[in-house]
Amino acid sequence: MKRSPESPLSSAPASVDAKGAVRHFDEAALNALALNIKTWGRELGFGAIGISDTDLRAAEAPLAAWLEAGCHGEMDYMAKHGMKRARPAELVAGTRRVITARIAYLPIETLSGKAHESTAQDGPLVPHWPQWRAAEQAQLADPSAAVVSIYARGRDYHKVMRNRLQHLAEKIEAEIGPFGYRVFTDSAPVLEVELAQKAGIGWRGKHTLLLQREAGSLFFLGEIYVDVPLPTDAETSPDAAPETPGSHCGSCTRCIGACPTGAIVAPYKVDARRCISYLTIELKGSIPLDMRPLIGNRVYGCDDCQLVCPWNKFAQAAPVADFDVRHGLDRASLVELFAWSADEFDTRMQGSAIRRIGYECWLRNLAVGMGNALRAPSGSLSAEAREAIVHALKLRADDPSALVREHVEWALEAA
User: Fold this and answer.
1) Known binding-site positions for cob(II)alamin
2) CA dist., res. 165 & res. 214, Å (int)
3) Is 50 exceeded by the pLDDT of residue 11?
4) Which of 43, 144, 169, 276 is a Cys-bridge partner for 302, taking CB atoms 3.0 to 4.6 Å apart?
5) What count of other Cβ atoms lies within 10 Å of the Cβ of residue 31?
């Protein structure tokens, strides 16, 4: 955390930084600063900004139980950090408040059809939910298509969010002088959904993602941990329904039923070991045999639980060009992407979140998709497409990577 021993804000309330220096803050100035932070956030493209305290004790027991059950799979870093995820002041000493921001990522290229009559809060008007959702589901129904999760079709969100949050922190610093802060964008052990709910930005859906009435769930979250005792926002109010505490999902279970692998094992609980996003992104080794047929043609991530969520009829288009679709990733074929060389992968995926998984896992995922295409019901894949897939797989039957060879061999078993 960047720190300084003092700030120009003066008088009560006070805080003590990591070095033991006492700093005083004027309450009226802090209130004004909080309002300015939200104004600056909107100027930077954020659809919502909220401020919360750091008390996440209620999340500790569920987190511990989830880890104990092994639901994090091979994401060892989650267990390594332990309860630091629920204790912001332990993760970053001196933290008093957390500023949480969201930004919509739905690319305008993903959309087609008539726009909403209402004005979008985040960005351009977006077509009615059934139309863009139908386009996504049509891709899923085409065995030869390579389906990349919507959020990953543009520029790496880590970079986009981090840069904008850093600009926001610098605006705060210009206003009050040096202060302690640290920016996070899915880059450290942060319970971002819990923090966002405490900050009044939304509530946790049964698929475990954050939902907001005005924006659904198709957005990124980022945080700034600060040592300034800013006024906090009201936490998102819970439903009256006792069976869904803290949620506005009511009795709806569409996301649970839509999950291809049954990864949403209970409302508000995901077993990562069954989640397609985990299997295609976080898992570095062989994809379990029983999971491969369930993945279908999803080669990077999965949006199924979001596609069926009624709240996403309010999903908003990205307000920045960074999330525009690159390299035709919204309409690419499995064969087309499987033909990329390692150099092509590195070049085309420069600045993309996809590059993080590496070329080997990219080919692994595509091989699974191609194997599933060959296993698709009769009539769903043309003879020409089938021949092209088999030919492409055979070209990589002797790939230098044992991981790739294994998944290619599995795919060709259906040839």
Assistant:
1) 85, 186, 210, 221, 277, 302-303
2) 22
3) no
4) 276
5) 12
Residue type, 315: A
Counting beta carbons within 10 angstroms of the beta carbon of residue 3, is it exposed (0 to 12), middle (13 to 18) or buried (19 or more)? middle
Q: Which residues are annotated binding-site positions?
A: 85, 186, 210, 221, 249, 252, 255, 259, 275, 277, 284, 302-303, 305, 309
Instruction: Report the distance separating Cα 391 and Cα 139, nearest Å.
Output: 22
Instruction: Report the Cα 372 to chain-centroid distance in Å.
Output: 26
pLDDT per position as a tens digit, 128-168: 667 888 899 999 999 999 999 999 999 999 999 999 999 99
Binding site, annotated residues for tRNA: 284
Amino acid at 54: T
> Distance between CA 154 and CA 151 in Å, rounded?
7
For the chain, the three-class secondary structure string (H helix, E strand, C coil) is CECCCCCCCCCCCEEECCCCCEEECCHHHHHHHHHHHHHHHHHCCCCEEEEECCCCHHHHHHHHHHHHCCCCCCCHHHHHHHHHHHCHHHHCCCCCEEEEEEEECECHHHCCCCECCCCCCCCCCCECHHHHHHHHHHHHHCCCECEECHHHCCCCHHHHHHHHHHHHHHHHHHHHCCCCEEEECCCCCCCHHHHHHHCCCCEECCCCCEEECCCECCEEEEEEEECCCCCCCCCCCCCCCCCCCCCCCCCCCHHHHHCCCCCEEECCEECHHHCHHHHHHHCCCCCCCCCHHHHCCEEECCCHHHHCCHHHHHCCECCCHHHCCCCCCCCCEHHHHHCCCHHHHHHHCCCCHHHHHHHHHHHHHHHHHHHHHHCCCCCCCCHHHHHHHHHHHHHCCCCCCHHHHHHHHHHHCCC
pTM of model > 0.85: yes
pLDDT for 266-287, tens place per residue?
Answer: 999 999 999 999 999 999 999 9
The two three-digit tokens of residue 227, written as one number = 């040592």
Spell out the domain ranges in the chain: 14-331, 333-415
Catalytic residue numbers read 186
For 342-347, what is the mean pLDDT? 98
Partner residues linked to 115 by β-bridges: 127
Tokens for 192, please give them.
């971002």
In this prediction, residue 1 carries a pLDDT of 57
